[in-house]
Design a protein that fits this description.
Length: about 240
């Protein structure tokens, strides 16, 4: 027996004594070891309930669209992979992972339109805030996602995108006829007010080019978007004044 090519039984026995980091390095050695040791490392990860290793394994499997492994991890490591109870986990998923990863997790049971307390944001809110265009398109294409769902501050995803200056997201949502652009805030302000004071000049341009937004709309204090922008010293005021 060659020392460099031990039987599978010996490799598996050795793997039981390795740390998760050591197992991870061994997995990368070659395709044979990856196939051989995957069940072992998944079992170890689930036993140790390490959030770091569970998420690494989960996202790796989801990127490969390995639904069997994803489902197993979601079941066995539900204490640390609880997307229904942990909003930070779900937001981090949307913020950092690819559309493929998110799509695979949705197919394996992660809810697409769940609201988390206390902010009551949905996955669509986070996709809008973080500028995740591919993920946003995936969500709005689903029948079980409310494109106008409001968070704890009464903001729909469209307004979240405006406030975070996500121009491509705003453009995408403006093209969706289901999106309600007639939002009015607690002080009578409209989307253009929000764009003028919180968003970006590019977002202001998008709204100005859309006839559904009235540049002369006043809020409860008789302030137009131009006034609001000037009051806060926002550069968008110059764009508005030209209209």
């Amino acid at each position: 027996m060659s020392f460099l090519h031990p039987p599978n039984e010996i490799i598996l026995q050795i793997s039981k004594e390795l740390s998760l980091g050591g197992l991870s390095l061994l997995l990368r050695t070659n395709r044979h070891l990856a196939c051989l040791l995957s069940p072992t490392i998944i079992e170890r990860i689930c036993q140790e309930q390490s959030r770091e290793w569970c998420t690494k394994a989960l996202y790796s499997a989801a990127e490969r669209e390995d639904k069997a492994t994803v489902t197993l991890l979601l079941e066995k490591a539900q204490e640390v992979l609880n997307y229904e109870e942990d909003p930070t986990l779900l937001e981090e998923l949307i913020k950092t992972q690819s559309e493929t990863v998110f799509s695979t997790l949705l197919e394996c049971g992660v809810e697409a339109d769940i609201k988390h307390s206390p902010g009551l944001q949905t996955p669509l809110h986070w996709a809008a805030q973080h500028g995740r265009l591919a993920t946003l398109r995936l969500l709005i294409a689903r029948n079980d996602v409310d494109v106008n769902a409001k968070d704890g501050d009464g903001l729909p995803p469209f307004l979240s995108a405006i406030q975070f200056g996500q121009c491509e997201i705003v453009k995408e949502l403006l093209q969706d006829k289901r999106v309600d652009v007639s939002w009015v805030g607690p002080y009578g302000q409209g989307p253009l007010h929000e764009a003028a004071t919180e968003g970006s000049p590019a977002v202001v341009r998008l709204l100005l080019d859309d006839e559904r937004f009235d540049v002369n709309l006043v809020d409860r204090y008789d302030r137009t978007a131009i006034y609001a922008a000037a009051y806060k010293g926002h550069e968008a005021g110059t764009l508005l004044a030209r209209r």
